[in-house]
């Protein structure tokens, strides 16, 4: 019977991961180092705005193992992590809880493991759990990568939790953008149908926690600040 309930617990855990929501779970694995790369560069593409322009703002930039890297639904996830004892090398990871955020993928890391984007040496046992990002009263930040009159690649940054879905209104109807593995959403169609003559597009974003908010996206290149933010959830840690 105990084995049966343990199996149910594992099924629930992996169902949550498959849905792109690691909140409510703790993970354990190895903690390693891959050097200080300044602003959080990595597969999550936080190069130009939001998280990536604020070194240390959300804690240590982290690369997550390939099994748990899911692009937009994991990029920008804030966590707290600590060393749990055990390991080898010159720089043990502190047993005190410390903040971090996911900005990259570690292809060779095993499930549950994280790679710290800072200088250090060794492989150490760690545990970590997701928390809401401490963005305070600030709003979303938006940025672009490439694009033309019929295609835009939009990123949502500085969010309280990772974004799993972005919709944009086209001629009065919501159209879902396509999530990419490098933490963007592709918008396909004639740009004027979305942004119109006023220069702003109506968008709707949904987080991995299921919260949905609407905002105005008032730039078609470069970066701009939004007017909305995800709510602070009292049933989830952090905020």
UniProtKB/TrEMBL annotation:
Transmembrane segments: none annotated. Keywords: Signal. Residues 1-20 form the signal peptide. It comes from Raphidocelis subcapitata. The keyword Ligase does not apply. InterPro entries: Expansin_CBD_sf, Expansin_CellWall, RlpA-like_sf. The keyword Metal-binding does not apply. This is Expansin-like EG45 domain-containing protein.
């Amino acid at each position: 019977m105990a084995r049966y309930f343990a199996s149910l617990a594992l099924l629930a855990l992996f169902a949550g991961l498959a849905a792109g929501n690691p909140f409510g779970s703790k993970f354990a694995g190895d903690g390693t180092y891959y050097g200080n790369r300044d602003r959080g560069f990595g597969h999550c593409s936080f190069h130009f705005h939001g998280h990536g322009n604020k070194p240390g703002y959300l804690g240590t930039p982290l690369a997550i193992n390939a099994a748990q890297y899911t692009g937009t639904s994991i990029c920008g996830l804030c966590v707290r992590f600590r060393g749990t004892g055990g390991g080898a090398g010159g720089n043990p990871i502190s047993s005190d809880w410390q903040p971090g955020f996911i900005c990259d993928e570690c292809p060779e890391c095993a499930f549950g493991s994280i790679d710290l984007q800072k200088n250090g040496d060794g492989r150490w046992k760690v545990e970590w759990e997701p928390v809401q990002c401490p963005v305070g009263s600030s709003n979303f930040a938006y940025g672009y990568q490439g694009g033309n009159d019929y295609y835009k690649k939009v990123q949502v940054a500085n969010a309280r939790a990772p974004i799993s879905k972005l919709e944009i209104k086209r001629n009065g109807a919501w159209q879902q953008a396509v999530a990419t593995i490098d933490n963007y959403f592709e918008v396909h169609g004639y740009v004027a149908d979305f942004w119109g003559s006023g220069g702003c597009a109506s968008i709707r974003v949904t987080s991995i926690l299921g919260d949905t908010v609407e905002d105005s996206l008032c730039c078609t290149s470069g970066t701009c600040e939004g007017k909305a933010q995800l709510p602070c959830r009292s049933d989830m840690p952090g905020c």
